[in-house]
Amino acid sequence: SIVVLGSTNMDLVAYVAKAPARGETVTGREFRTVPGGKGANQAVAAARAGAEVSMIGAVGADDFGVRMRAALEHSGVDTDLLRTVEGASGTAHIVVDDEGGNAIVVVPGANGTVTSLDHGDEALIGTADALLLQLELPLSVVVEGARAARERGVRTILTPSPVQPLPPELLAATDLLVPNEHEATALTGETDPAAAAKALLQQVPEVVVTLGAAGCLHAVRGAEPRTVPAPRVRAVDTTAAGDTFAGVLAVALTEGRPMPEALAWASAAAALSVQHEGASTSMPYRAAIEAALA
Ligand code: ADP
Question: What is the ipTM of this complex?
């Protein structure tokens, strides 16, 4: 099984021809609310891909919280250890313009209250095959979760997003780091993905750098980094492509698939997700991934 320790955010998306400048008001074309947050997105991707998935995190005591919990459960994610806390759920306020560019304000809300784990959380992590982590919860609990997993021999997979300097104790408890190209550069100062991956290998044993339409780059100690091309598709909305990739990669690895095969699964799922609008709503189910791979 897979445990996700991470964020839930309601994405509040306004579609507009051109984003407003400071002091300006513009009329938008459309508004949508979509359950998101990197943690919840990875949980949905993994559950739809066929794994048993549990989510540790928090939603607020508001309508968004009710809806986000229901959305997770609808995709098959166990939310028994997803807390409901006083105050607002996490929200992401997103303005998407006609060129597909976006500007985002994330207000952590309930996510910010998840500062430590209790015995129940640690026990659940101990039963998992893999723990998925991102950086949208307080860093203290991310470190605590990674350590709890490491102590119990559970594989840890970290998406370093939103990117920030990673404490040595987090890196020391990370088995697989999955940054996108921009994050890999921010973490290392290297603009070339292969050089960035090699630099990261000094701190973690295995790295997969995602490269958008160009696929991904796999690097492991003792071998040359290897590029895996992405399926050629018409991308409509690449939101949460990275979360789909990480969630499905975790599923394939916990099924015992070797890394090249697991990367093919993750790439196929991510390519399916970018062909439709919506983030978590566009993530593929297992049958679709298998059909794409066949
Ligand atoms: P993020 O969403 O975190 O910025 P990327 O843009 O690198 O991450 O995308 C993650 C993965 O999603 C890629 O490695 C690739 O497998 C897939 N992907 C993203 N964009 C496309 C695309 N246009 N065509 C096919 N696959 C894509």
Answer: 0.98
